[in-house]
Amino acid sequence: MAEFAGPACADIIARLPIGVFTVDSNWRIDFWNARLVDWTGIGADRASGHPLGEILPRLAERQNFSRLETVMAGGPPVVLSWQLHRDLYPRNGGGLRKPGAWYTVASALPNRNGILFSVEDYTEISELLHGTKVELTRRREAELALQRALIAKEAILRESNHRIKNNLTMVASLVSLEEDRAPDEASRHFLIDLGSRIRSIGLLHELLYSHPSEDDPRVDEYLSRLSSTIARSYFGDLGLSRLSLELAALRLPASQAIKVGLILAELLTNAFKYGGSPAAPPAVLVRLAAIDGGICELHVADDGPGFAPGWREGRNSLGLLLVESFAEELGGTLEFSEGPGGRIRLRFPLPGTAAPAR
């Protein structure tokens, strides 16, 4: 082929990292560079002068050859990609470790003298794409497996919380049945307090059951329902009307929320039990807020007579011991204000913050 007659030009083409060959207007190969020799194992002397279909039978197949005929007639270049046109070229068993992925562009030579074929080896790209596809498939499968595991976890947690809540409700009901059979008023109050504690735990599990996808429950929702339940248990709707709630929307881990709930149950029980009478229940305020420094504050106040004189020396009630114990577990502090009415403040660090100074 005249276009490649010069030795300098032939040497340059021989060194190209791509395969180059040409066919004349009679469909005979008249140039075959060194790169194709390496890739196919077919020498230039073996290829040159031979019909295209003899050396590369796949290119002579009708679906490929009809496209090459348009190029020979001066039409635009055609592309033969490795995805759709595999095994166009024989593989040099000694020179290649794996079947090649060839990307071929066939372009018309000037004056309709033949076709120039440029062949690029996309084997590495093909393997990279295949590896990427395999990795994406693996990741999708892992993601689906994780989603299935999360769904299963939510179902298990939902069922567990549902069963715990039902069991606690049954225990609380049994305790309530025993209240009327208590031998004295002290025993009756003990059973009432015990039932309140059980119900406070059951309410949290009911909240967790209702929102299984939330790891940290809305503590304001929990305390609102808990406060209403305790107020109604002592004074019915009248007690509920005397209850004021100012609860900021906060989330706490369930392990913290249940301690806060038990503390509030004890404080409310104390306020409703000692802060008024059946005919005149006390006005009770429950406030929950996040204050500066990453601190959560729970404030419970009533308009009753307040703490009895010398109450600090007699701090041996089970309720007070529970409040102080749970406050310590929360890393928090308790503040009791004496005077008209009872006022108690619990302050404890929100998750991720240091405990307040004692």
Query: What is the helix content?
Result: 40-55%
How many strands in all? 10
Q: Return residue spans where pLDDT drops below 50 for at least 5 consecutive residues.
A: 94-98, 354-358
Tell me the count of domains: 3
SSE pattern, N- to C-terminal = HEEHHHHEEEHHHEHEEHEE
What portion of the residues fall into strands of 2 or more residues?
A: 15-25%
Notes on the protein architecture:
- The chain is an alpha+beta fold.
- It has three domains: 2-121, PAS domain (Beta-Lactamase, 2-Layer Sandwich), CATH 3.30.450.20; 123-214; 234-358, Heat Shock Protein 90 (2-Layer Sandwich), CATH 3.30.565.10.
- The protein is 49% helix and 17% strand.
- It has ten helices and ten strands.
- It is rod-shaped and about 120 Å long.
Lay out the secondary structure.
Layout lengths: L6 H9 L3 E6 L4 E4 L1 H7 L3 H4 L4 H4 L6 H11 L5 E3 L21 E7 L5 E8 L1 H57 L5 H26 L8 H23 L1 E5 L6 H21 L9 E8 L3 E8 L15 H12 L3 E5 L5 E7 L9
Parallel strand pairs: 6-7
Antiparallel strand pairs: 1-2, 1-5, 3-4, 4-5, 7-8, 8-10, 9-10
